[in-house]
Design a protein that fits this description.
Elements lengths: L3 H40 L5 H4 L2 H9 L4 H14 L4 H18 L20 E2 L2 E2 L1 H13 L11 H9 L4 H11 L3 H12 L2
Antiparallel strand pairs: 1-2
Helix pairs in contact: 1-4, 5-8, 6-8, 8-9
Length: 195
């Protein structure tokens, strides 16, 4: 028979899980609202990242493993190019948030990667130009060390992913699951490309 302490601990665990689920749902609504607000700001002429986010908004983004620059880039591309759409942006952000909270235990990267060290645009893997570059960008997106002048799911990334018939969130998840196994990523992408 469980002791009173064990029952209390079980009750606390259930309550903590309930709170976490509520918070999980709450962050999505907060994120959607923030994104819509920033799209409106951008359309109204606020087109610099420094002027777009309050301290409270920056803190919220930090709590989910995101940065104002990343969200600004998404706002800009969605407003100017019509992609990625808000649902895709949320899906990408969910993968990063889950990686940040679970794999990284909520610890932010201490440094960002140096832009010049990313594979060049013309670099090839499995005969596909841009492939080495997008793998490294996806890894940096996951780890939160993407330099501010690079964006995961930029125009070049989207062109590559459309060519190989893979969605941006799907590619990010495959890179996450692959870890250091680049061959897993290559097989997934080449199999899809050949369909």
């Amino acid at each position: 028979m469980p002791t009173t302490v064990q029952l209390k601990n079980t009750h606390e665990t259930i309550e903590e899980n309930r709170i976490m689920n509520v918070e999980s749902e709450d962050w999505i609504e907060s994120f959607r609202s923030l994104f819509d607000n920033k799209v409106a700001n951008y359309k109204n002429g606020i087109q610099k990242v420094e002027a777009m986010f309050s301290k409270e908004e920056e803190d919220f983004l930090r709590s989910i493993g995101a940065t104002p620059q990343e969200i600004f880039d998404f706002v800009e591309d969605w407003t100017d190019d019509g992609e990625p759409d808000p649902d895709m942006i949320l899906a990408i952000t969910q993968i990063r948030r889950d990686f940040f909270l679970n794999d990284q235990q909520g610890q932010h990267a201490k440094f960002v990667k140096i832009t010049d060290l990313f594979p060049p645009r013309e670099a090839k893997l499995a005969g596909l130009e841009w492939f080495p570059r997008i793998i490294e960008k996806a890894k940096a997106k996951l780890y939160g060390d993407l330099p501010p002048d690079l964006m995961y799911s930029c125009g070049g990334d989207r062109r590559f992913l459309k060519k190989v018939k893979v969605k941006p969130d799907e590619f990010l998840q495959v890179v996450r699951e692959a870890g250091d196994d680049v061959e897993h990523i290559v097989k997934f992408v080449t199999d899809r490309f050949q369909q």
